[in-house]
Amino acid sequence: MFRNRKNLVFYATVAVMLIITLLLVGCAPGNDRWDRGINPSAPEAGFWAGLWHGFILILSFIMSLFTREIGIYEVNNKGWQYNLGFVLGVCISAGILTRSGKKRKKMNMAELEDIGGRIEEKVRTGLKEWLDESLREGKKKEKMEEWEEIAKKIVEKIKNALKSWGKSE
């Protein structure tokens, strides 16, 4: 049934999310817990219930499309306390949703130049060490000049690639 580990993880995640969704629906606004018509001694929804109902607003809305028992706002509440909790819950939920789709920070040109400088230094150091190891005798100065030219070209290519990447972000 599961061809690889990714499929297993995917289906397990979906199953866990479905179970959590069903558990959360039991805490949604509009259930019998707050209904004074059914239960005259039922408490009114307060701050914490409002906070929770605001936090699960999206889930409650989706579920309310399929059933009349679930609402998005509990009408049997304590007033401003419930409203405050509800608004805070909506804000927290909206903040989490907006952050989840946030792109990574764009680098400015100074940061890209700094990265380019560090790469340049590493390339030069690495090439010099390699050259020293490979050329123990003879035309070291001529070879050094050739490798310096190659290093400059490599560094320039890397810097240009970083700049174009930074502008495209």
Question: What does this molecule look like?
Answer:
There is one protein chain. With 169 residues, this protein is mostly helical. It has two domains: 5-100, no CATH class; 109-168. It is 67% helix and 0% strand. It contains six helices and no strands. The protein has helices at 5-25, 47-55, 57-64, 80-100, 109-134, 140-168. Helix 2 packs parallel to helix 4 (80-100) and helix 5 (109-134) runs antiparallel to helix 6. It is elongated and about 100 Å long. 11% of the residues are buried.
Rg for CA atoms = 31 Å
Number of domains: 2
Total number of helices? 6
Shape: elongated
Features:
single chain; 169 residues; mainly alpha; 6 helices; 67% helix
What is the topological layout?
Elements: H1 5-25, H2 47-55, H3 57-64, H4 80-100, H5 109-134, H6 140-168
Helix pairs in contact: 2-4, 5-6
Question: What's a quick, concise take on this entry?
Answer:
The protein has 6 helices and no strands. It is mostly helical.
